[in-house]
Amino acid sequence: MSQHTFVLNGSRVTVEVADDVRLLWVLRDILGVTGPKYGCGLNVCKSCTSHINGKAFNPCSVPVSKIKESDEITTIEGLPATVGRDLHPMQEAWLEEDVSQCGYCQPGQIMAAVALVRKTKAEGRQITDADLDGLRNICRCGTYSRIRTAIRKGADRM
Amino acid sequence: MAEHRRSPEDPTRRRFLGYLLAAPTLAVGVTWADAALGADEAEASIPSLPQPEDLFDLGDLQNLAALPTSGLISVQVDEDGTASFALHRTEVGQGITTAVAMMIAEELDLPIDKVRITLADARPELLMNQLTGGSNSVRSIFTPVRTASALARQQLVRTAAARWDVPEDEVATRDGVLSHRSGKSATYGSLAKVAASDRTVQVSVSLKAVEDFRVLGKPQNRIDALDIVTGRKRFGMDIQVPGAKPCMVRRPPTINGTVRAVRNADAVKAMPGITDVAVIRYGVAVRGETFGQCVDGLRALDVDWNPGTVDGESDATVLAKLRKARLPLAVPPLGALSVEAEFTFAFASNAPLEPDNAIADVRPDRAEIWSTLKVPIDARQDIARQDIARQLGLPVDKVVVHVVTGGGSFGRHLFHDVAAEAAEISQKMGKPVKLSWSRTDDFRQGRAHPMCVSRVRATHLLGNVLTYEQRHTSSETSFSHGLGEMITSTAAELPIAGNYTFAQTIFLLSQSVPYNFGVVTQLLNEIPLKFNTGSMRNIYSPNVVCAQELVVDKLAAKLGKDPVAFRREFLKDDRLRAVMEEVVVEGRWGRPLPKGVAQGIGLHAEYRGAVAVLVEVDCRPETVNRPISDGVTGPRVTKATIVIDAGLPLNPRGLEAQMIGGLNDGIALALTSSLHIKDGIPLEGSWDNYFYTRQWNTPPDVRVVVLPPTTGTPSGAGEIAVAPSFAAVACAYARATGTTPTTFPINHGELGFEPFPLQPSTPASPTNGLDSAF
Predict the structure, then answer these.
(1) Is CATH 3.40.50.2000 the classification given to domain B2-229?
(2) Which candidate in B97, B132, B228, B701 is best for mutational testing of the A interface (most A CBs within 10 A)?
(3) Does the ipTM surpass 0.95?
(4) According to the model, what pLDDT value does residue B660 have?
(5) pLDDT confidence of residue B498
(6) Sign of dihedral through CA atoms B20, B21, B27, B28?
(7) B224 vs chain A: nearest CA distance in angstroms?
(8) Which numeric CATH code is attached to B315-349+447-744?
(9) Which residues 346-375 in chain B show a CB within 8 A of chain A?
(10) At A71, which CATH number?
(11) SS3 state of residue A32
C-alpha cells in the first residue's frame, strides 16, 4: 500500500492503495466516482474515457502509480466545471440530439468527443468524417449517427 | 382550455375500468388489459394462406398471458404535484420509461418532467406480466397505463368540481393545474390528499381520442438523458450496498467447465485487497476491495478443471451436425425453374456493453438481489428454490429482487445467470458481494445466438412463384425463462396445432413470408448442443429474413426483374408495400453508382409494424482495405434509409433511435460480428475481437422516416429494424460484388485477431494507457 495524490475534477485527492491498481478502480471503487464505466478493462471499448491534463485517456489501463501529483484528472462529473457552466457545450449537443439509448458508453463518448474537438481546433481545422471514423468508443446500442451529428454541433460551440 | 375537458358521461366512447385505491394520496389501479387479439388480421384473399404469425404473433401471446394480472399496476399522484409509476418492465436503453412517462403525461395533462418512473421490484402477483421482451412492452402497457392515468385525472376533476361546486365538465386540466372559468384553480399536488380514497372502489373512464393527443405522437427526448450525459445515471455496478465488495470469477477453459481442484486458495486470499475466495458451480469466486485486485487474484489462482458441456465442438463440427439435421424440402428441384440457396449464420454474442453484474446480500434468513432482469420473478423463484445446485433454501417470500436499469440487453437479461451466481457466492462467502463478469467472460461463457443454417427452395413458372420452402436448422436456443412458461400456460389458445417445442412455437409465432409465393412453408429444426444460448434482438428473424430477401433478389434476377419491381408485384402486405414505396423515393432507388457500389433493399413486418431499409454498400478495394488498427474495415455501408410504419407511433424520436440501433446491428450481423467456436469455447475476448459496428463501419448518411399513424395501436419498435437491415446489407453486397454470400457475417472465414489465452480466463489490464492519450 502506498499513498497516491492527484487532482480529480478540480480537487486534490489522496488515496491509499497498491501501486499497480488501475486508476479506473481507484476512481470507481475507492473514490466512488462512477461516471467512467467498466466495459472491458482492456483499453478497447473506451467507456471509461476521461481526461488527463485535458487529453483523452482510459484509466482502466493506467496504474495509479503512473499518475503524478500535478496531474489533473477530469471525469464526466468534472467536465462542466472546465468551462465554468452547468453543462459543457458537448453535453448540451448530446441532449439536443437525444443521442443516448442505454447511456452506458455515453460519458466516455462525450469525453472522447471533447478531446477530439480540442485536438482539431488546435490543428486549426474542422472535424472531418475521417476524424469521426477514427473514434474507437463502442456504442453497442448503435447510436453512432447521432453521436456524429452531436459532435459537429458541440464543436461549433466550443 | 376547453379541449381538455372530457365529459365522463359521453356515451359514444368506450369506457375502461379501474379502481380508486385506499391510500394517503390519490392512487389508481387498473384491472383491464387491451389484448387486441386478432385485431389486425392479415388479409387472406391471396394465393398464400396466412401463416400463424400473420394471425397471432409473439406479442399477442404475451398480451394473452398478461390478461389476468394487468389490473395490479397503479399510478399515484403525490403532494408535490408529481405522478409516480413503478414500471413492471425493465429499461435497458429501448426507451420504455420515456414512452410510459408520455402516456401518463398525456392522460393526466401533466408536464412530462413531473412524471416519475421507477422500475418495480419482482412482483410475484404479476406472474408473466413482468417480462420485458419480444418488443411487447408498449403494446401491452398502452391501454392499462393510460386508463390508470385517466382515472387519476378524472378523480382530480371530480374533487375540484365538488370543492368549487361546479359541474365536472366545466373543470379543465392543463400542465398539472385544474381550473374553472370563474378563475378558481388548484394544482394537482394541492388536491392529492383530498382526492385520495379511503376505501377501494371501482370506477370507469374514457380515454383521450388519438386526435386529441398533445404528448403522444410528438418527438420526445429521453427522460433519463440529463442523468446519462452528466454521469449520474446509476447502473448495477454504480449502486452502493453496504459491505457489497467487488467480486469476479476465475472461469474454466471451456464452456460450462467445472472446478476439480484449487491448489492455492489460501495464498490468493492473502493477496493485497483480497477478502474471500470460494469455489462455485462454474469457477472460483474472488472478492476484494477493488475489481482490479479481483482480476489479479483470479489470475493468480491455480485451478484444475473438469470438462465442460461442448468440449469437442468447433464451428466445423457444429456445422456438420446442423447439415445432418436439416429437414427435407418437400417440393422436388425443378432445374431451371427453381432457385435454391443455403446460408450459414455463425454464433453471435448478445452481450451488451455493460458486463453482466449483480449485487447479492444473502443472509441465513433472507436474501436481497439487485440486477438488470427482464424476468425478475423467474430470477426470484430460481434463486430461492428452483435451481437445485444453487438453492439458498429460503422461502420465496424471503427473497427481494430489485430491478436495475441496464446498460443494454439485446436478449442477455432475459436470463438471470449472473444474479443466481452472485447469490451463490454471497451465500458461500457469508457476505454481500458486487459481482461483475469480465468482458472476456461475457463473450466466452455468456449466452449467444447459436449457429444456424437456412435452406431455401423456391420454384417458379411463367413468371409466377409457385412454392417457397425454408428449412431453418439451428443449434438449440434456450427459452428456459419466462417466455417458456408463458407458452405452457397459454398452449391451448395458440393457433398452431401439434407438439411443438418452445423454440418451434416462437419460430412459428414470429415468422411469415410477406410475398404471394404460392405454397409457403417455414420450419425450424434444432440440434441439442449444450452451448449457453438465448434470444438475441429479433431472435430468428435476422437470419430467416436475410435468407428470404437474398432468395427474393435471386428470383427477381431469374425473372429478369429489378428487385423493387419484383417485390412490388409479389408483396401481399399493404403496409410493407407502403414503406417500400416510401423508401424507394427517399433513398433514391436506382440512382447511378460507381462500379463496386450498389443498393440493396430489405423488408420485414413483425410486432404489428412494418419496416423497409434501403442501403448502399461500397465494396471497392480502396474502401474495403482502409487501414484501421485492431479493427475490421471491409465493405462499408455508406448510406442508409429506413422507413417504419409503427401503427400508431408514440414517440417518433425514440422510434428513430431504435431504427438507427437496429440498422447498426444488421450491419454487424451481415459484415463483421460473430463468435468463432474452437474446442468448446468462443475465441473472442474483447470488442476488438467481436467486431460490433464501429464508427468506421457505420454509415455517415442515415435517414429515418416514421410514417404517420396507420392503425390505432402502437407496434413493437426495439427489434423490428434488425432483420430488414441485415437483409438489405446482404442484398446490396451481393449486387455490388456479383456474388451472393452464403456465410454470415461475410468475414467469418478469416480470424482477424490474435485470441487472448484461454487461461487465466480474464486478461490482465494493460499498463500503457497513457501512450494512447489524445
Answers:
(1) no
(2) B228
(3) yes
(4) 98
(5) 53
(6) negative
(7) 9
(8) 3.30.365.10
(9) 351-355
(10) 3.10.20.30
(11) coil
